[in-house]
What we know:
The complex is a heterodimer of chains A (about 160) and B (about 280). The longest helix of chain A is centred in the N-terminal third of the chain and has 21 residues, at about 1-20. Chain A is α/β, with parallel strands linked by helices and about 160 residues long. The N and C termini of chain A lie far apart (about 45 Å). In chain A, helix 4 (about 85-90) links the parallel strand 3 and strand 4 (about 100-105). Chain A contains six helices and five strands, in the order H-E-H-E-H-E-H-E-H-E-H. Chain B has two domains: about 1-125, Helix Hairpins (Orthogonal Bundle); about 130-275, Heat Shock Protein 90 (2-Layer Sandwich), CATH 3.30.565.10. Chain B has helices at about 5-80, 90-120, 130-150, 170-185, 215-220, 245-255; strands at about 130, 155-160, 165, 190-200, 205-210, 260-265, 270-275. Chain B has a five-stranded mixed sheet with strand order 2-4-5-7-6. In chain B, strands 1-3 form a two-stranded antiparallel sheet. Chain B starts with a helix and ends with a strand. The chains are: A alpha/beta (about 160), B alpha+beta (about 280). The interface of A and B includes residues 42, 43 and 106 of A. Chain B: Its EC number is 2.7.13.3.
Amino acid sequence: xxxxxxxxxxxxxxxxxxxxxxxxxxxxxxxxxxxxxxxxxxxxxxxxxxxxxxxxxxxxxxxxxxxxxxxxxxxxxxxxxxxxxxxxxxxxxxxxxxxxxxxxxxxxxxxxxxxxxxxxxxxxxxxxxxxxxxxxxxxxxxxxxxxxxxxxxxx
Amino acid sequence: xxxxxxxxxxxxxxxxxxxxxxxxxxxxxxxxxxxxxxxxxxxxxxxxxxxxxxxxxxxxxxxxxxxxxxxxxxxxxxxxxxxxxxxxxxxxxxxxxxxxxxxxxxxxxxxxxxxxxxxxxxxxxxxxxxxxxxxxxxxxxxxxxxxxxxxxxxxxxxxxxxxxxxxxxxxxxxxxxxxxxxxxxxxxxxxxxxxxxxxxxxxxxxxxxxxxxxxxxxxxxxxxxxxxxxxxxxxxxxxxxxxxxxxxxxxxxxxxxxxxxxxxxxxxxxxxxxxxxxxx
Lengths: 155, 280
């Protein structure tokens, strides 16, 4: 019985630490697939990140300027404006060019990966390969919150 | 002239005639052969195109099934690994997502089954006497919340005097679901959709009109063929297997009716289908 109580306490403390580390960190998630949005946003908000959802690509840049997120998760095929065009505009704008951008997509074609890297994407993830419970770690390392801040490209 | 010379001339001309006949015969045979080669090539091109369309269709299908499957797998993994870190609301959202992903997949599988039944001639309808207006109103009500989220108005304009007649209510609902969901999908915000029923001669006519982008004349016929999907421009990513209209056509034709697309004035498209009032 005591062991059980201790275990719960450890989990609670761990959760509090995680929340403390990520407190106030905003992630802007540009995604029109409701399924992937619900899945990844649950995984990220579990760690205390604040998620802002944008569906229409043409509204993404404006939303970034208003919300000033710490990190952007960006789908490529979007209604209104493509993710690569959004990335280009963000990286060319003085106010937004330092914000970390992770491309999140279905199609890992070499030309898309190369173009995203060329345009300044900080990482490129295939939706099918992402393990939701590992996504917060990935984000944390990109934001320099964990010891392992090394960024690896997944192709 | 000697008899010898005459015989020689006759033999020579006979020989020439035989040669001529031989050449004519050969050239006719050759032209047949050439025609056959051309036909064969044309057929193989057609087959190649059908094969290409099948390949594209299969690739699209795999993608349509892989997305919801990945989401379902991811959501269940997350709940198994991190149940203690997820709030009650988050778990509810994930469970609802699994439910909607799986029902989306089931719809795709059902569509494929319908298509294979249509192809093998095993597609059957069960006609019952009923009021089609009631079905139109019920189906349009189902799409109101989805339309409202895009500020689209759905107007019902049904002919109250339509008599009851025999049709397959479930299958007609399926046609309406397809036409209405397409109309909501492809109509921009603040647009409108009109659902109309009327009697034209011996045919009950139903129209689903929208104020979307409309459909080019070229696509108007193609959309009812298998493996064809409306090409989406400017990066819109509307989901669908492109089978809905093929099935709708099969259902309407099984009733003895017709389905086609017209231009809607001043903007958008009008999907019209007819069902016979009396049985043939």
